[in-house]
């Protein structure tokens, strides 16, 4: 999987993705990242990449030509049908299912906007998909692009180790993670639940599943509609709801 990122702030992307799991995956080429600085394609004396909006109003708009030329500089390397994703709060909501869909691609181009927006014509010309990471406004698409690259990358075989790859079963299941504990066995008078020290894996699994259901009901009840529960787990959920 290769990510191409078109941005005015290349260091945000390279630095932000240079640590921990993703940093390692980039180093060993399990995933690849090419960051293209839109400013390198300004093609004018002042290296300008933004201008006042036609029709007036506050702020600046990113100009179409530098973005288009940045895209053209990589176009020949891209396979047929390679998605070009524009990071925008107007995009489709980013969910685990969207990460799973993008993880099937061989390459993805991500366009990060800044200022008050991007000239609509270059979006029409090159963008195939728009993604938002939530209903709030960021100053630019870079943080959002990093969130997408991180969550897509961890689905690529070889990025996580065997132990780590078990961990995301829960969100695909529409359930939140169960609580975790490690040493010491007592902290500030709070003890680790006995069942976790019992050595009975069957009981531990059952307890964790129940805690996941309990937490999801308490924190994100709307997720439970899509959860895959056994009859016994349904019964447990109904008991929690007091039904
Ligand atoms: Cl993808 N971009 C920007 N600029 N702001 C956002 C966003 C994306 N998602 C939520 N807010």
Structural commentary:
The chain is α/β, with parallel strands linked by helices and 243 residues long. The protein is 37% helix and 16% strand. It has ten helices and nine strands. The protein has helices spanning 10-16, 20-27, 64-75, 96-102, 120-126, 142-153, 162-165, 169-172, 201-219, 231-240, and strands spanning 2-7, 32-37, 50-51, 61-62, 84-93, 107-112, 129-132, 186-187, 190-191. The strands form three sheets. The protein has a five-stranded parallel beta sheet, sandwiched between helices. A two-stranded antiparallel ribbon has the order 3-4. Helix 9 crosses helix 10 (231-240). The chain is elongated. Bound molecules: 6-chloroguanine. 6-chloroguanine is lined by residues 87-89, 91, 131-134, 136-138, 140-141, 144.
Secondary structure topology:
Layout: E1 2-7, H1 10-16, H2 20-27, E2 32-37, E3 50-51, E4 61-62, H3 64-75, E5 84-93, H4 96-102, E6 107-112, H5 120-126, E7 129-132, H6 142-153, H7 162-165, H8 169-172, E8 186-187, E9 190-191, H9 201-219, H10 231-240
Parallel strand pairs: 1-2, 1-6, 5-6, 5-7
Antiparallel strand pairs: 3-4, 8-9
Helix pairs in contact: 3-5, 9-10
The chain binds 6-chloroguanine.
6-chloroguanine is lined by residues 87-89, 91, 131-134, 136-138, 140-141, 144.
């Amino acid at each position: 999987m290769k990510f191409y990122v078109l941005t005015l702030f290349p260091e945000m992307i390279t630095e932000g993705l240079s640590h921990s799991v993703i940093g390692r995956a980039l180093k060993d080429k399990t995933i690849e990242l090419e960051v293209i600085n839109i400013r390198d394609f300004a093609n004018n004396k002042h290296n300008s990449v933004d201008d006042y909006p036609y029709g007036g109003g506050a702020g600046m708009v990113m100009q179409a030509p530098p973005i288009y030329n940045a895209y053209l500089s990589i176009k020949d390397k891209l396979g047929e049908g390679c998605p070009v994703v524009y990071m925008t709060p107007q995009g489709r909501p980013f969910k685990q299912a969207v990460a799973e869909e993008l993880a099937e691609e061989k390459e993805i181009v991500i366009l990060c906007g800044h200022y008050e927006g991007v000239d609509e014509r270059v979006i029409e010309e090159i963008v195939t998909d728009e993604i938002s990471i939530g209903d709030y406004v960021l100053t630019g698409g870079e943080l959002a692009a990093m969130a997408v690259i991180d969550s897509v990358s961890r689905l690529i075989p070889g990025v996580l180790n065997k132990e780590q790859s078990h961990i995301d079963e829960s969100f695909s299941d529409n359930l939140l993670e169960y609580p975790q504990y490690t040493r010491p066995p007592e902290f500030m008078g709070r003890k680790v639940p006995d069942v976790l020290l019992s050595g009975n894996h069957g009981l531990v699994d059952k307890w964790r599943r129940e805690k996941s259901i309990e937490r999801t009901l308490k924190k994100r009840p709307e997720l439970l509609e899509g959860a895959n529960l056994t009859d016994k787990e349904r019964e447990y959920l109904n008991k929690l709801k007091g039904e």
